[in-house]
């Protein structure tokens, strides 16, 4: 598992180089955004269950066929599995936000996920929509906690949707 600093060190060590201007700039930007990252994690933690629940309600309002007979969230077991997945996405996205790096998502969440979803018939498009709804709710929550620029919150959620949507080669 890597964060912004360890991943930079790894890249420079492989090349046997000291930190150059680019490295220093990226270190600066990571440390300057540190307080906002921690504030975001605190804001998410203060209402994680609420965020997941709200995202689920919004998703099923937009795509009601998911909870009708034949839909992938039909039956309470699958409904609960879907919300549990959203909770995983939120928790690991929070780790990635603090780390300033999406490596934790690759290692702990995304590895083999598409294959699992495909074999169970979990639809990717609606899952991606769910993650994007979650992102928007998180950004509102983080903004109302006083973080002025919430653009950095996009990264882990967009990373999840990008990796999930990627076509098979
Ligand atoms: C921490 C990393 C991690 C992830 C990400 C994870 C995902 C994950 N989601 C699963 C199932 C599932 N995932 C969903 C999700 C959905 N269905 C929908 O209609 C919606 C579009 C969507 C929610 C947004 C559903 C319904 C199932 C159960 C499918 C089934 O058993 O038929 C399964 C199969 C095993 C199980 O049911 O628990 C896994 C492994 N597990 C992990 O350990």
Automatic annotation (TrEMBL):
Superkingdom of the organism of origin: Bacteria
Modified residues (N4-methylasparagine): 72
Major localization listed first in the record, in broad terms: membrane
SUPFAM superfamilies named among the record's database cross-references: Globin-like
InterPro entries, per database record: Allophycocyanin_b, Globin-like_sf, Phycobilisome_asu/bsu, Phycobilisome_asu/bsu_sf
Membrane topology classification: Peripheral membrane protein
Protein name: Allophycocyanin subunit beta
Cross-referenced Pfam families: Phycobilisome
Keywords: Antenna complex, Bile pigment, Chromophore, Electron transport, Membrane, Methylation, Photosynthesis, Phycobilisome, Thylakoid, Transport
Family as reported in the entry's similarity comment: Belongs to the phycobiliprotein family.
UniProt keyword Zinc-finger present: no
Gene Ontology cellular-component annotations: phycobilisome; plasma membrane-derived thylakoid membrane
Localisation per UniProt entry: Cellular thylakoid membrane
Example of a GO biological process term: photosynthesis
Gene3D superfamilies given in the database record: Phycocyanins
């Amino acid at each position: 598992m890597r964060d912004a600093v360890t991943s930079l060190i790894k890249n420079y060590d492989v090349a046997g180089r000291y930190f150059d201007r680019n490295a220093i700039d990226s270190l600066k930007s990571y440390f300057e955004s540190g307080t906002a990252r921690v504030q975001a994690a605190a804001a998410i933690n203060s209402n994680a269950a609420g965020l997941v629940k709200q995202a689920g309600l919004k998703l099923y309002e937009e795509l009601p066929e998911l909870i009708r007979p034949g839909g992938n969230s039909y039956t309470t077991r699958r409904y609960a599995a879907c919300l549990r997945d959203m909770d995983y996405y939120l928790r690991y996205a929070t780790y990635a936000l603090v780390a300033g790096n999406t490596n934790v998502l690759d290692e702990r969440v995304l590895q083999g996920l598409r294959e699992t979803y495909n074999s169970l018939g979990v639809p990717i498009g609606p899952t991606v929509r769910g993650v994007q709804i979650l992102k928007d709710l998180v950004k509102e929550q983080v903004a109302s906690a006083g973080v002025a620029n919430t653009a950095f919150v996009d990264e882990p959620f967009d990373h999840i949707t990008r990796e999930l949507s990627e076509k098979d080669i």
